[in-house]
């Protein structure tokens, strides 16, 4: 999800600042586990964490960990299960490399989410699961002198309650403040916002120490997260995987190494029986003995002085076809680097669904695809969906195999000269059922709004069946097309 200060915001935020709930906890200490092993998570639906034969392991007692957790595809992103508290309360949250804060719906009253898609529904939506602090023996409230409190009260977020009240945010850095951290506002791109308070509790993940089988729950105490009571356009919760202090891999001690994910195709959305892995630590990185980099196409990780917590890569252009030798659309120089203001580059953002490109580059890509596709345009569906290109593709009956159509394969030419050939299902998607021996498929790219920040965004839809490794040791991002369902 795009960082909060990269887009314009809506006036409703001012109203929402008036409904921030208060949360009450016992006093906390500023602790952080220092585990330096490996973590393997899955993207999946809620599952029971404990089995009778499992023994709870404390992460601080081990120098090497392998942690295995199921994760799954959802309708517009990818979910992992967070097990918070003692005993664990289990929540599904979005995996988001474009933000830092991890948060869950939380409190004693009902969770309020505005513009979450239920306003026009005649049926009442099911209640959102909420974390209950009173039901966790290890729950505490974060203090205003902690580094997490300073981080969440960003001085450039004018919608934050402290900023609105004229709080001297730098005063938090003294470390002498004994009061609870004030309620915060955390904003995202696209008009999303959450309101809550900072809490500390144990987060528990499946795993084994020093490869001891069978896997057992591994506890990371003192994990800092947002206890959120109200939101706009954020219905369930987020696990932040950025490079900031608040992020999940940062708190668990894995940003000195890296992590990887392999996203299932969206056709597995809502299927709890098919999962794919998220890996943190040594196991995420290609073996140093692999001469070909483990089959990954690596591109340098660009640095932004203004937005240092996010993952940027360069983009040189786009080509079409199986060989993809010649670029049909050349990216502007701004997409292959980040300037001194923090503008430019391509943000790798699992919290954004569709890849976004700026004009006139976006228009050039669409023109090239329209010219290469031998099918009739479906302009009525383009108007209904908002996507720039939709085609009537012959199909006798569902499912319509992507390899059987003549839509051109799209390749991204990344910084450094490497070419990433996207799986065809990661570019086009059928938006209708089969009718009159045809199905309408749309190119799922979007136009990037003008503004400061990243010049383009690589979204999760285009990362389907592509293993992505964030190698923080070597400062690079690697891509490897593969069937992620086989990695379950």
UniProtKB/TrEMBL annotation:
Please state the span of the N-terminal signal peptide per the UniProt entry: 1-28
Which residues are named in the active-site annotation?
96, 349
Superkingdom assignment: Eukaryota
Mind telling me which InterPro entries this protein's record contains?
Answer: Aspartic_peptidase_A1, Aspartic_peptidase_AS, Pepsin-like_plant, PEPTIDASE_A1, Peptidase_aspartic_dom_sf, Plant_Aspart_Prot_A1, TAXi_C, TAXi_N
Coiled coil as a keyword of this entry, yes or no, is no
Keyword flag Glycosyltransferase = no
Which segments constitute the Peptidase A1 domain? 78-480
Which keywords, in A-to-Z order, does the entry hold?
Aspartyl protease, Glycoprotein, Hydrolase, Protease, Signal
Q: Name one GO molecular function term.
A: aspartic-type endopeptidase activity
Q: What GO biological process, any one, is recorded here?
A: proteolysis
The record ties this protein, via PANTHER family, to: CHLOROPLAST NUCLEOID DNA-BINDING PROTEIN-LIKE (PTHR47967:SF47), OS07G0603500 PROTEIN-RELATED (PTHR47967)
The UniProt similarity line reads: Belongs to the peptidase A1 family.
**Name used for this protein in its record:** Peptidase A1 domain-containing protein
The species this protein was found in = Urochloa decumbens
């Amino acid at each position: 999800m795009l960082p909060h200060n990269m887009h314009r915001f809506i006036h409703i935020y001012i109203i929402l600042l008036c409904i921030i709930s208060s949360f009450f906890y016992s006093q906390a200490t500023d602790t952080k586990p220092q585990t330096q092993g490996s973590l393997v998570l899955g993207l999946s639906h809620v599952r029971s964490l404990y089995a009778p034969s499992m023994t709870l392991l404390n992460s601080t007692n081990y120098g090497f960990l392998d942690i295995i957790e199921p994760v799954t595809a959802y309708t517009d992103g990818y979910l992992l299960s967070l097990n918070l508290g003692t005993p664990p309360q289990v929540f599904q949250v979005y995996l988001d490399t474009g933000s830092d804060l991890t948060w869950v719906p939380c409190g004693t009253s009902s969770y309020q989410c505005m513009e979450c898609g239920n306003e026009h529904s005649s049926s009442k939506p099911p209640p959102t699961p909420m974390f209950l602090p009173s039901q966790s023996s290890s729950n505490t409230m974060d203090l205003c002198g902690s580094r997490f409190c300073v981080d969440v009260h960003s001085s450039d977020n004018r919608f934050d309650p402290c900023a609105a009240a004229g709080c001297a945010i730098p005063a938090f850095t003294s470390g002498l403040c004994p009061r609870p951290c004030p309620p915060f506002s955390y904003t995202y791109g696209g008009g999303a916002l959450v309101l809550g308070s900072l809490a500390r509790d144990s987060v528990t993940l499946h795993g084994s120490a020093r490869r001891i089988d069978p896997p057992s729950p591994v506890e990371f105490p003192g994990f800092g997260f947002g206890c959120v009571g109200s939101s706009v356009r954020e219905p369930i919760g987020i696990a932040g995987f950025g490079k900031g202090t608040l992020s999940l891999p940062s708190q668990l001690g894995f940003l000195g190494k890296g992590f990887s994910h392999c996203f299932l195709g969206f056709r597995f959305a809502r299927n709890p029986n098919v999962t794919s892995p998220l890996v943190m630590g040594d196991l995420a990185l290609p073996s140093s003995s692999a001469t070909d980099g483990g089959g990954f196409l690596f591109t340098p990780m660009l640095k932004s002085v203004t937005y240092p917590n996010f993952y940027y890569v360069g983009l040189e252009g786009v080509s079409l076809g199986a060989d993809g030798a010649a670029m049909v659309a050349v990216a502007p120089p701004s997409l292959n680097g980040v300037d001194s203001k923090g503008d430019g580059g391509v943000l790798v953002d699992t919290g954004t669904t569709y890849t976004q490109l700026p004009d006139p580059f976006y228009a050039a890509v669409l023109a090239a695809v329209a010219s290469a596709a031998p099918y009739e345009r479906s302009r009525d569906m383009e108007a209904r969906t908002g996507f720039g290109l939709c085609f009537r593709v012959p199909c006798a009956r569902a499912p319509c195999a992507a390899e059987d159509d003549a839509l051109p394969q799209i390749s991204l030419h990344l910084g450094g000269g490497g070419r990433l050939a996207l799986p065809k299902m990661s570019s086009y998607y059928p938006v209708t059922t089969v009718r009159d021996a045809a199905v309408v498929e749309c190119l799922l790219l979007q136009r990037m709004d003008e503004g400061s920040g990243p010049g383009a965004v690589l979204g999760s839809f285009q990362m389907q069946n592509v293993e992505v490794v964030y190698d923080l040791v070597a400062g690079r991002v690697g891509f490897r097309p593969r069937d992620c369902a086989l990695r379950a």
